[in-house]
Amino acid sequence: xxxxxxxxxxxxxxxxxxxxxxxxxxxxxxxxxxxxxxxxxxxxxxxxxxxxxxxxxxxxxxxxxxxxxxxxxxxxxxxxxxxxxxxxxxxxxxxxxxxxxxxxxxxxxxxxxxxxxxxxxxxxxxxxxxxxxxxxxxxxxxxxxxxxxxxxxxxxxxxxxxxxxxxxxxxxxxxxxxxxxxxxxxxxxxxxxxxxxxxxxxxxxxxxxxxxxxxxxxxxxxxxxxxxxxxxxxxxxxxxxxxxxxxxxxxxxxxxxxxxxxxxxxxxxxxxxxxxxxxxxxxxxxxxxxxxxxxxxxxxxxxxxxxxxxxxxxxxxxxxxxxxxxxxxxxxxxxxxxxxxxxxxxxxxxxxxxxxxxxxxxxxxxxxxxxxxxxxxxxxxxxxxxxxxxxxxxxxxxxxxxxxxxxxxxxxxxxxxxx
Amino acid sequence: xxxxxxxxxxxxxxxxxxxxxxxxxxxxxxxxxxxxxxxxxxxxxxxxxxxxxxxxxxxxxxxxxxxxxxxxxxxxxxxxxxxxxxxxxxxxxxxxxxxxxxxxxxxxxxxxxxxxxxxxxxxxxxxxxxxxxxxxxxxxxxxxxxxxxxxxxxxxxxxxxxxxxxxxxxxxxxxxxxxxxxxxxxxxxxxxxxxxxxxxxxxxxxxxxxxxxxxxxxxxxxxxxxxxxxxxxxxxxxxxxxxxxxxxxxxxxxxxxxxxxxxxxxxxxxxxxxxxxxxxxxxxxxxxxxxxxxxxxxxxxxxxxxxxxxxxxxxxxxxxxxxxxxxxxxxxxxxxxxxxxxxxxxxxxxxxxxxxxxxxxxxx
Lengths: 419, 364
Prior knowledge:
The structure holds 2 protein chains of 2 kinds. By secondary structure, chain A is an all-alpha fold. Helix content of chain A is 68%, strand content 2%. Chain A is extended and about 100 Å long. The N and C termini of chain B lie far apart (51 Å). Chain B folds into 2 domains: 9-234, 3-Layer(aba) Sandwich (Rossmann fold); 242-361, CATH 2.40.50.100. In chain B, β9 (209-214) and β10 form a beta hairpin. The A-B interface holds A 313, 315-316, 318-327, 329-330, 333-334, 337-338 and B 56-58, 77-85, 87-89, 91-95, 104-105, 108-109, 152-153, 156, 162.
């Protein structure tokens, strides 16, 4: 022992033991790497790279300095807080940049990019783009303002100057309902705020869905774990059945069930529980989203719960009762604490799935029941403001990771059992 | 802790069926006086555990009534029966410390904190685990978990404690040690204990009386020595201890004794236990240690056998012989330091007293 503490251990031929061990394990490591290599490669190019690219778009702003390189340089010396329009050299640089951009048909793209922050910019660039060819040398300032009077608006130039750097925090500011102007960063006017409210709603509805999944799934999981094998297998098939049905079909079925003239309302009216004039608004609102998503995500709660409950021997409950506990005490003090890993796993699974859900809120949520993901989809496919979509997505990802860390702090991630 | 505060238990015509087609327990009648250590012994599927579960209240009796201290308990839920129970896998609550496990039955009874602590401490000391109160069950060895389970079943001072194969998961040495500890606890506390096991050694070491179960019926209910010396039927003789079987026909009955003719023509004198008359098929049961390899005039039965195998076991020598057509005939000879000239393949005369071999019911 004393020898080993003074000199490093060596093999019989004098090679340090650690080197020798690493050599012996190298083949094994190489083989395990080769085994995972195809999947790793696939994930890198189809998953990690696109996501990284998408996240990069949330701060990327190269289009302004790339399309208007001279203007951006010329604007550097201008200070908008003095209340004066930029001088002739800036307009001259803009004319030169714009002529080039029109040749390469880039000016409309720049227009739509600027339009996110300065409404009207898109039409400004389109109309001026048509006229800039005929501009005569000299006195560009006048000609620009003649082409579109907004070129004489000092706010526009301020905005342009702010957007002239390669990287911007503008998308992130927009994503949390803030903006930057000459006075600094502040919240947008009340009526223009939308994203914080959507984030809040997404979180709240996801919590509501997780809770209702837990309340509905816990007894089912208990039955699954405690019924005789034949019956529980049948029940398990019923639980899994929704997995084998298309998500769209299930959501559409909820549309049929929940609408004003739908099955549920008809039944309630028929049973005289509600009157015909007071049909319950179950769809195109938050209620619809919660009902449909609870149904869709329920298996993700039941399965982890089941796998944990399956391992809890019935003798614990028996022991508790033989020690004098009532059924409820035995459940609450002995059974329930042992199912917490399952609750944790199910809750985190359902919550994370719910927070990023898109198709169901889109179909049954109406306007009051949509999630932040629907807004992201809108910016990706309709408004084509990918930068904002990326910023929203990054924030969503951040929120999920934050939840994960919080969960780890409170419950402990090693307490989670997925099966 | 006061002694002789055990409860009495009585099973009256108890039957149990799970599927409505077969009876797992067939008409059980059993009287357990206060303070007795009764063991239910039997192979798996013999109904012994079912009987225990009915007493604990986890399985309802299909028919009949169980009395605890002369009060019928069929309709009393398990948590109101006040019966301590030790489970096969201990069923210690994994999310509670040892002390919390022990305090659990006291808490649900609404006992004050100070009294709880005192009782838990005393119970832990009883099983010599005084310093382990803060550990989780998973941090204890199997033997320690077992002791905690016993302490938990006793901490609320029940009059009756049930044990369902509590030593099954322990290794042999620990099991033997725990047998004595449980026995001593029983002697000190005076509680009634109903103990279920399939291990006959456990049953013989610990019990006041043993009920041997087979096929849903108590085959014999006797103190351990009677069970071993005077088995009432072939099943008990075979199940308890080691046993040589010789099958034959009863040819003559003379008071307590009868003469049995074996298929090879040998006639043996046997103690008549479970035969009704001349002409009956019978199985003779004979303990290996009652056979003498140097027979004297006291040994009425003397036959010749061939030594098939010799095994030296230190304190005794085990000889497997072919006797009267049975080549599984075992003789145990105590090692008293005498030297016999025993050789494999040797023919040798052996003998035993007529009272030591019992003529029991025939088994196939």
